[in-house]
């Protein structure tokens, strides 16, 4: 289990060009081709994951299935458990088959802490990936939220998000020089509030 540092920054629509310019000026290179990502988040009947995230409680989790809708070959589905603890953040990823994906959507997920969780929120966005040394940057645009049970209920975010990830053992001085507004931002919590 490797803990990591994750910092998120708000990028307004009129700052996207400046953000890309800043990334390139700091010697970051494209890591992967840009792509669309969809995530389906799970929640229990008391909305405990949302409430714990809003209150900043630790430890806390987010449970989601992530996939890439534009893949031309057989889609790959990943069950991801994101944990925030006093020691840091880490993510457990398990590749799952299509029939397991469909069963989870239909039957839900049983978590040892949060109990029975059903699919609640779908998030769709466009991501660019960059890397330099031990820093990784992602820039997410066109973030759209919709209810799993009713895809007609949706909302598009007016913000873009730049995220920088690195390991605890890497020097942190670069993070002090980022010229954008650092924020707490959870796509799950943001979508939950916009749709409820």
CATH class category: Alpha Beta
Distance between the termini: 35 Å
Low-pLDDT residue intervals, each spanning 5 or more residues = none
Q: Main β-sheet, in a few words?
A: 12 strands, antiparallel
Structural class: alpha+beta
What is the overall silhouette?
globular
CATH architectural name:
Alpha-Beta Barrel
Approximately what portion of the residues adopt beta-strand conformation?
Answer: over 45%
Our Rg estimate from Cα atoms comes to: 17 Å
By CATH, the superfamily comes out as VTC, catalytic tunnel domain
State the helicity in percent bands.
10-25%
Query: What is the third-level CATH name, the topology?
Result: mRNA Triphosphatase Cet1, Chain A
Q: Helix tally?
A: 4
Mean pLDDT: 93
Helices and strands, in order, run as EHEEHEEEHEEEEEEH
Structure in a nutshell:
This protein is α+β, with helices and mostly antiparallel strands.
Name the features:
single chain, alpha+beta, mRNA Triphosphatase Cet1, Chain A, twelve-stranded antiparallel β-sheet, 12 strands
Textual characterization of the structure:
The chain is an alpha+beta fold and about 200 residues long. It has a single domain, classed as VTC, catalytic tunnel domain (mRNA Triphosphatase Cet1, Chain A). About 20% of the residues lie in helices and about 45% in strands. Strands 1, 2, 3, 4, 5, 6, 7, 8, 9, 10, 11 and 12 form a twelve-stranded antiparallel β-sheet that branches. A hairpin with a 2-residue loop joins strand 8 and strand 9 (about 135-145). The chain is globular. The model has no long low-confidence stretch (mean pLDDT about 95).
């Amino acid at each position: 289990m490797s803990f990591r540092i994750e910092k998120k920054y708000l990028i307004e629509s009129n700052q996207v060009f400046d953000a890309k310019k800043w990334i390139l000026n700091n010697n970051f290179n494209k890591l992967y081709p840009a792509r669309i990502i969809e995530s389906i988040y799970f929640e229990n009947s008391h909305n405990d994951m949302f409430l714990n995230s809003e209150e900043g409680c630790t430890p806390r989790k987010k449970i989601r299935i992530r996939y890439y809708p534009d893949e031309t070959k057989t889609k790959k589905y990943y069950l991801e458990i994101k944990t925030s603890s006093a020691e840091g953040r880490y993510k457990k990823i398990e590749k799952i088959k299509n029939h397991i994906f469909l069963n989870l959507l239909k039957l839900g997920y049983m978590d040892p802490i949060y109990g029975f969780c059903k699919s609640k929120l779908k998030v769709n966005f466009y991501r660019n990936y960059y890397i330099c040394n031990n820093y990784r940057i992602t820039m997410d645009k066109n973030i759209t939220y919709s209810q799993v049970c009713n895809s007609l209920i949706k909302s598009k975010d007016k913000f873009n998000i730049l995220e920088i990830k690195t390991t605890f053992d890497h020097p942190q001085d670069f993070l002090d020089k980022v010229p954008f507004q650092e924020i707490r931002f959870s796509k799950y919590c943001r979508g939950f509030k916009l749709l409820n």
